[in-house]
Amino acid sequence: MKKRSRRRSFAAGILMGSALILVGTGYAVVSAETTPSPEPAVAAGSLEQLQLGRQLFLEGCSSCHGLQGEGIAADNATGGNGGPSLIGAGEASVDFQVSTGRMPLAVPEAQAPRKDVQYSQAEIAAMAAYVATLGPGPANPTEEQLNLENANIAEGGEIFRTNCTQCHNFAGSGGALTNGQYAPSLMNATPEQIWQAMITGPQQMPVFSNETITDEDKQNLIAYVEALKVEPNPGGLGLGRIGPVAEGLFLWTAGLLSLIAFAVWIGAKVR
Amino acid sequence: MSATVKTAGKTAGWVDDRFTSSNFLKRNIGKVFPEHWSFMLGEIALYSFIVVMLSGVYLTLFFKPSMIELAYNGSYVPLKGVKMTEAYASTLNISFDIRGGLLMRQIHHWSALFFVAAISVHLLRVFFTGAFRKPRELNWVIGVGLLTMALLAGFAGYSLPDDLLSGTGLRIAQGIVLSLPLVGTYLSFFIFGGEFPGTDFISRLYAVHILVVPGLILALLTAHLMMVWYQKHTQFPGLGRTNDNVVGYPLLPIYMAKAGGFFFVVFGVITLISGLVTINPIWLYGPYTPDQVTAGSQPDWYIGWLEGSLRMMPNVEWVIFGYTLSWNILVPAVILPGLVFTVMAIYPWIEQWATGDKREHHLLDRPRNAPVRTSLGAMAVSFYVLLWIGGGNDLIASFFDMSINTITWFLRFAIFLVPPLVFVATKRICLGLQRRDRDKLLHGMETGNILRLPHGEFIEVHAPISDEEKAVLMAKPERTPLTMPEEIDENGVAMPGARGARLRAKLSNFYYADNIPLPTREELEAAEAHLRHEVEQAAPAMEEDRRLIPAHDGSVLHDPAIDK
Fold first, then answer.
1. Which of B52, B76, B113, B387 would you mutate first to test chain A, the one with the most A CBs within 10 A?
2. Inter-chain contact B275–A236, Cβ cutoff 8 Å?
3. Backbone angles phi, psi at B411, to 5 degrees
4. Quick one: how far is CA B297 from the chain centroid?
5. What is the pLDDT of residues A27-38, one digit of tens each?
6. In this predicted model, which residue has the larger pLDDT, B559 or B19?
7. How high is the pLDDT of residue A3?
8. Which CATH superfamily is domain A47-132 in?
9. Domain A153-241, CATH homologous superfamily name and number
């Protein structure tokens, strides 16, 4: 009696488990088939591209930035949040904000977080091209500007430590700013995004124009960040590269507790 | 007799003829140490100090305490050609170009962190068990001195590599010196040999780090251990343990084997961690220049509480006749640590005076049996932890998606509100545990067996507690508060010194008044008789219960196999 009931309960579990796996994989296969959105084939700088950009802008951005990109003032009476004007924001701004997933905004909070990108590369380019027509603004870096072959990493490190570490931390791991704002980690930022961020100054970041940091210095700096990304930790686990607090936490948890466990073992009474 | 034994015997004889060492050994080899895991926390500190010394000696062979500027030309590419001091360059060389250098650096740094952490938990153990009481007050003070020296050694070592982080720490230290009224500016110029950072400081700090402070630590450590040896180790209450004996293992062979083995465990764990986990990656911080700083600039954990107090302090400054008095630095970085270490050092005498307890104590208190002391300790720990949180407020803000301002404002209030709450809660818990102990003595321990009596009542069957446990519970010291002295004598004249005595009586009341008394002898005897009766009464029913088998459907069957 007992044995049979036990076998039955196992069977129910296995059945349930396999059913879940089946449904899960099935859904994954089906959804994977439907995800890729068709790439609109539009040439860069063409009228079609601008039209596509405008259409996407009206659908996805105009509710906050205004139908002409003129911006909407925050309305305290209705709680409407509004958004800044995009006239003069330039294609670099649009490309940075949308290609890091910061725009479109999911919810107004202290700062827009990096999240999954909502548009394809072609769509982003179309929106950027459209916004660039609203008024002159910073342009995307050219491929030549992003060529890091001759960059000097050590020089870049000096620029990084002088201009970036106070917010982004010594290893680009990010850090806190006031009132819930923060400097994000640079470990996911592409060279293009770093360049765009420097010339547009998104959110709390100041603008580092060509007068402050020249193109060559930008290349050096980006090369340094790229080197940081792939640099191994010769000393073992990096503990997130956030400084002595993580080391202290590790010491008091894993370190000291293991020694105390040994002490308890050695001090245990022989029974 | 083999040749080896013969040689050993001859050598021993040679030494004995000259030093009569066998007398010394005979007296001390059988010395008994009591056994408890918490007595080994101090050992962790001692052993990690040995590891610090060994690895430190290796580092001195390659470190160059010089602030001469040079262009780096070692094997770490991202810093090639960068201008830096020789101190930083030599630390990079130790990390990348000297065999075993990085491992040694990490062993040195991790074991230093272990050293201070082990001192701290050892200090907590000594405090919460009352091991600092007479006759060991002076050894407590030496311990506080050792902790201070360890912090100093750690901070000096943190500042030596001259990377961005250590330079930032030094800058804060200089700011603290500057905040001292009247002498601050002069002192800063004296210490740094001119304007910060100057060119002298690393070599001066080096002497402090490798000579002065370790020398003091060694001296204090020797005194500390000799006093433990001479005054004998305290022990927890238990069967056969009194205030006049020491129950434990002899030094040789058992204790020596355990302690020696534990040294290698500590050495091994530290080396393992140092081989697997990065500490202070100075190459990522870059060389120090006063115009650079990094987010997440924090000291090592043991200075974290002072970092926290600095970060929490509101910005209060007075300008008096053109001179600035920086309360925003003085209070958190000078007055607070001064107060903390002073109170810590004189605590044994505070408690002695308040309770009037001047007897010798070799038997430790269980923390619950000294509720006020335990609560004061817990209060201090909560204070310290809040300061710690303040020291890491930026990382807490970014990892838990909070506002750094909110955290800081919360802490500014919590630092005054939370410790008293912790005091009250801890005291309640201690008194609750005391009641439970009394309950155990009077009613025995709960067995978990529920018995239904013939008239329908349910009772839980109790069993007598073991002799060992009874000895522990009965060892609870009787503590009565001092009585309130008369303010005026029989002639109606004010008693001299009455005010002090009254304050003392009040304090003693604060310490002892709530204690739950041990049961009296009559109560114990009555309870024992009752318990014996209960066990006897329950025995047949329990025996029957053992023969029952609960079936799957909830019914109960007699097991015929057991019945036979």
1. B113
2. yes
3. -65, -35
4. 26
5. 766 665 555 455
6. B19
7. 46
8. Cytochrome c-like domain (1.10.760.10)
9. Cytochrome c-like domain (1.10.760.10)
